[in-house]
Design goal:
heterodimer, A: alpha/beta, Rossmann fold, Cytochrome-c3 Hydrogenase, Chain A, domain 2, 3 domains, two-stranded antiparallel sheet, 16 helices, elongated, B: mainly alpha, Fumarate Reductase Cytochrome B subunit, 2 strands, 4% strand
Chain lengths: 369, 239
């Protein structure tokens, strides 16, 4: 990378951010990323010395809520990461360029920084028919494959790019696939959520910038710093769960008292995210704090694991809202009836054995009755 | 008074470890199903109070996890006993690889389930169909341990649950592990209904003392069945 490029710190200083605010940002990021105190210095040094990260940001089949979330990050510097560090290259929603100029912008990045630029993707990629998502006459898959070929790493923003989200929900008419399913050979960071938390997105960017390598990932490709704990484990209502105090309906006394939303279908116990710690919108609140169960938006296939307000997912093929419990109970009753029927038949068919008529019992084999 | 002389021989079928395994397993499964169902669908017992008064749901979950560990090690012990135990406990009983086992499976279906013939089934230990069903339950045990400890691994740093952590991403997330775990609970309940019924059924029809055999280990076996079994064993040993 050319050293005459302005560093991130120089850029934010020009934009009127004080050194004090810059240091606050670095400290916040270090805390979010779970670094120890010395990590703050590393971040400060990296942002002061390293030139900006070349980024190409694609929008495929999605709703742009990831971008929306990102620019609402709790710290103003995060917004300048977007506006000053990314839009300069290629970001379909936020860049000034359009048409030919836009195309040129990302081609320039690919030529100028081979092996150094990061590809960030919002949205899933259609595979059923590539024509479902085309930009500038080329399909999403073609664009992605070309851009990924020489990139350093891929960041998959949100559930669409990480797991397919609503486009991949049954019956998935466009054959929507997440990024890691359609490309290979490059590290893919799945920043899950619908959308992901802005500070988590910023944390991932800062990590890439500071340490020059991808963060530690879990088995599903999510950064461990943000996705290693369940929403349930960090929930402030957890005490109510352990005490067995549950909201039974949205307008009951329990809801007023702030009981656990487990029985309202809260997916917190099966969802890995930082909502309970980092929270949303400048750390104001998160769904459970606002009285709504977690819908599990950072888990693959959460649209198909519904309904949102039911503890167990419905089982496909048995009609709406048929859970394992309903089917199990039905089978249990059927089994009990079957067993009772068998007992009655036994008393009729095996009468001689039961009454112990010697002739029948003594014979090892008899003809068909 | 109705009575009958029927030459029966007492055979020690179930060794003490097998019986212990059976009852520990039964106790664990009963406890796990009850606590598991409550965990999936907790009743509103203490509503109206505050969280600092109670910990009953935590206790239910603790009992579930404790029983799960016991169940798991008991299961491992039974696998070991499938190699160390007597001929009726041997693992070869449970996997129908021999033609004779398949023949017996068909016979059991005809005699006990469909009741179209009155042939006598010769087996002294488990009959072949029962063995296959037990083998399927072993697979369900395994799946239940995988999904259960897989989910548990998210809140544990200990060695054992971490061994099962890989199952969760394989299934596509905790919710699928939870769903499978829940469905399999019903498999245990259905099994228990049929299992208990069949014990009664066999005791009622055969009068070999099958119910008490799981307590004392001894079964009454007809002399001719016993002798046939002995000659077959000798022939096998000579080969």
């Amino acid at each position: 990378m050319k050293s005459n490029e302005p560093s991130f710190y120089e850029e934010v200083r020009v934009n009127g951010i004080s050194r004090s605010d810059f240091l606050k940002f670095c400290t916040t990021m270090a805390a979010f990323m779970g670094l120890e105190a010395s990590g703050v210095g590393q971040i400060v040094k990296a942002l002061e010395s390293k030139p900006r990260l070349p980024v190409i940001w694609f929008h495929f089949q999605e709703c742009t809520c990831c971008s929306e979330s990102f620019i609402r990050a709790s710290h103003p510097i995060v917004a300048s990461i977007v506006l000053d560090k990314i839009s300069l290259d290629y970001q379909e929603t936020l860049m000034a360029a359009s048409g030919v100029q836009a195309e040129e912008a990302y081609k320039t990045v690919m030529q100028k920084f081979p092996g150094e630029y990061i590809v960030m993707v919002e949205g899933s990629i259609p595979t059923e028919n590539e024509a479902y998502c085309c930009i500038g006459g080329r399909s999403a898959l073609q664009i992605l494959e070309e851009a990924v070929a020489n990139c350093k790493a891929v960041v998959a923003w949100g559930n669409c790019a990480s797991a397919g989200c609503v486009q991949a929900a049954r019956p998935n008419p466009t054959g929507a696939q997440p990024v890691h399913k359609v490309i290979s050979g490059k590290p893919v960071i799945n920043v899950q959520g619908c959308p992901p938390i802005a500070d988590v997105m910023a944390g991932v960017v800062v990590h890439l910038l500071t340490f020059d390598r991808i963060p530690q990932l879990d088995e599903l490709g999510r950064p461990k710093a943000f996705y290693s704990r369940r929403v349930h484990d960090t929930c402030y209502r957890r005490a109510n769960f352990d005490a067995g105090l549950f909201v039974e309906s949205f307008d009951d006394e329990g809801a007023k008292r702030g009981y656990c939303l487990y029985k309202m279908g809260c997916k917190g116990p099966v969802t890995y995210n930082s909502c309970g710690i980092i929270k949303w919108n400048d750390g104001i609140s998160y769904p459970i704090q606002s009285g709504h169960p977690c819908i599990g938006c950072s888990e693959a296939g959460f649209w198909d694991n519904g309904p949102f307000y039911q503890h167990l997912p419905s089982i496909a093929g048995f009609g709406i809202e048929t859970t394992a419990d309903k089917i199990g109970l039905g089978l249990g009753i059927a089994t009990a009836v079957g067993v009772a029927g068998h007992a009655i038949v036994t008393n009729v068919r095996k009468h001689k054995e039961i009454t112990n008529t010697p002739e029948t019992v003594a014979e090892p084999e008899t003809k068909k009755v | 008074m109705r009575s009958r002389t029927n030459p029966m021989r007492e055979v020690h079928v179930w060794e003490l470890p097998v019986r212990l395994y059976h009852w520990v397993n039964a106790l664990c499964i009963t406890g796990l199903c009850i606590t598991g169902y409550i965990i999936g669908n907790p009743p509103a017992l203490m509503n109206g109070t505050e969280a600092y008064f109670n910990y009953w749901f935590g206790t239910i979950r603790f009992i579930h996890f404790l029983s799960a560990f016991l169940f798991f090690f008991n299961f491992l012990f039974r696998i070991y006993w499938g190699f160390a135990g007597n001929e009726f406990a041997k693992w070869t009983n449970f996997i129908p690889l021999k033609r004779s086992q398949w023949k017996e499976i068909m016979d059991v279906i005809k005699v006990d389930i469909l009741q179209v013939t009155h042939k006598k089934i010769d087996s002294i230990g488990h009959n072949s169909l029962a063995s296959v069903i037990y083998f399927i339950t072993f697979l369900i045990f395994l799946l239940q341990c995988l999904t259960g400890f897989g989910m548990y691994s998210a809140m544990s740093n200990s060695f054992l649950p971490k061994l099962f952590a890989w199952i969760v991403p394989l299934l596509g997330g905790d919710i699928h592990a939870r769903q499978l775990h829940h469905i399999l609970m019903w498999a245990f309940i259905l099994f228990a209904i049929v299992h208990v019924y069949l014990v009664f059924y066999h005791d009622y029809i055969e009068r070999r003392g099958i119910t008490s055999s799981m307590i004392g280990g001894w079964k009454f076996i007809e002399e001719d069945v016993y002798e046939r079994h002995e000659t077959e064993s000798k022939e096998k040993a000579e080969k």
